[in-house]
Each structure stands twice: as structure tokens, then as C-alpha cells.
Specification:
Length: 173
């Protein structure tokens, strides 16, 4: 089940973020980059007043509350990154033995990459759920996922190390 769900999670997340972009939800902090986007009817709109009130963004006081502000289109950053993760997994070579491989073997790296992607995009996102300094709830969950994935990887490596060593060492004569 996990083998089917995890790659679909990356693709589904990429598609879902397109919807967030279209409604102006989950955008980033203000930017002066040329691809910055203003959402006049976003959820909430990217007006100076809304960014100050909803997300406690520090904007110059000379900027009127009604001024539209260009923000990072973090929804598109996530769409592109998740598509790259999904495509990279699709393009990954098949196991050398020609068999499909053991169930669940290649899925933890995808979960790890998705967790890293989410942790990094949260740095740019305009959010009001920051706790523990500048960390968001999504970043805390991402770190938890990375710890679980790392633990699974480490446990698998330790479990397969003796059997791999036995295959490499010739049998005693």
C-alpha cells in the first residue's frame, strides 16, 4: 500500500498546490523578485494591512494598508519541487536483479525529500503558526518525518548488514 501511496502523495501534493495558487492561499512572504505575485482577492489578500494583521509581517509604516504587496509564490515552488521528486522516482532505475525489489524499500527517500521540501518552503511562507522562534508546526512535523525515515533507514541498514557481509565472504573450507 505504501509503495503505491507515497509516489502518488508527491504528485497529488504538486497538483493540490496549483489549486492553492489559483485561490491565493498559502503564499509566501513579501519579495521584490521579478516572479513575485500579488493576490488582490487571496485568502487573505496580499495587502500591506492584511499581511501585517494576519501574519505579523514587518512592512514599512509608510506603506498604506490598502497597498498590494508582491509575495513569494510558494505554492508554485512546492508544485515544481514535488513534480521533480515524483519524476526522479519514476526515472529511477529498476533494481539490478530485474525484480521489483522488497516492498517499501524505495519509498522512505521520497518521504524524506518531501519533508525537506516542506521544511524549506516554510522558511519563505507567510504564516501565523510560528512557535519555537521562527519554526512552524509544518517544520516540526517535517523534522519528525525525517527522524522516522532516518530511523527506518538506519534500522534497515543494520538488519541487512550481516546478511550482506555473509554473501561477500566466502564460505569456510
Amino acid at each position: 500500500m505504501v509503495d503505491a501511496a507515497v509516489p502518488a502523495l508527491a504528485l497529488g501534493y504538486a497538483i493540490g498546490r496549483i489549486g492553492c495558487f489559483l485561490v491565493g492561499d498559502d503564499y509566501g512572504r513579501p519579495t521584490s523578485l521579478p516572479w513575485g505575485v500579488a493576490f488582490p482577492v487571496g485568502l487573505p489578500p496580499t495587502t500591506a494591512g492584511s499581511l501585517r494583521d494576519s501574519f505579523h509581517v514587518n512592512l514599512p509604516s509608510s506603506l498604506p494598508d490598502s497597498a498590494l504587496v508582491r509575495v513569494h509564490p510558494t505554492q508554485l515552488y512546492e508544485t515544481l519541487t514535488c513534480l521533480v521528486i515524483w519524476l526522479a522516482r519514476r526515472a529511477a532505475p529498476a533494481p539490478r536483479s530485474g525484480r521489483r525489489g522488497r516492498a517499501g524499500r524505495n519509498r522512505p527517500p521520497i518521504l524524506g525529500l518531501l519533508a525537506i521540501e516542506r521544511f524549506l518552503v516554510e522558511i519563505l511562507r507567510a504564516k501565523d503558526d510560528r512557535f519555537l522562534g521562527s519554526f512552524t508546526l509544518a517544520q516540526a512535523i517535517s523534522l519528525l518525518v525525517l527522524l522516522v525515515v532516518s530511523g527506518l533507514w538506519w534500522a534497515r541498514r543494520r538488519a541487512t548488514a550481516p546478511s550482506a557481509r555473509a554473501r561477500r565472504e566466502p564460505a569456510a573450507a
